Amino acid sequence: MTFKQITMRDAKEIFESNKNGDYIILDVRRPDEFSEGHIPGAINVANESIGDVEPLELPDKDKLIYVHCRSGVRSKQAAAKLESLGYTNIVEFGGIIDWEGEIVK
Questions:
Q1: How far apart are CA 39 and CA 7, in angstroms?
Q2: Could you tell me whether strands 90-95 and 43-44 are parallel, antiparallel, or unpaired per DSSP bridges?
Q3: How many Cα atoms occupy the beta-carbon half-sphere of 36 within 13 Å?
């Protein structure tokens, strides 16, 4: 494992202080979970859909990508899969169940 891990609190501070930052918030839950509520600005690519081909939603392998799921299990799996596909700047920050910020529904 070489991807970086930060706490949900650290992620919230980063997103609040850098709202137009050059990063992607990647939610790897299923689409039905994503539609129930997600972090503002997040995009959804389900962990189960990440295989051995780069996701179309993530064309830049060097872009900073913050990955989360519901509890932190799938986000670690997705981060590892993305790294194996050649993504170089992955930060995993756990599960949305610990998110204390705004939720978009």
A1: 15
A2: unpaired
A3: 9
Region for residue 45 given its phi and psi (left: phi exceeds 0; alpha: psi -120 to 50; beta: otherwise): beta
Q: pLDDT digits over 42-75, tens only?
A: 999 999 999 999 999 999 999 999 999 999 999 9
The residue among 104, 102, 59, 88 whose CA lies nearest residue 45 is 59
Q: Following DSSP, what letter does each residue of 70-99 receive, concatenated?
A: SSSHHHHHHHHHHHHTT---EEEEEEGGG-
Q: What is the pTM of this model?
A: 0.96
Alpha-carbon radius of gyration of the chain: 12
Query: 43 and 57 in contact (C-beta within 8 Å)?
Result: yes
For 62, the token pair is: 């060097």
What gap in Å lies between CA 92 and CA 70, rounded to an integer?
12
Question: Using CA of residue 51, residue 55, residue 60, residue 65, what is the dihedral sign?
Answer: negative
Give me 24's structure tokens: 């992607």
Question: Which DSSP category does 66 fall into?
Answer: E
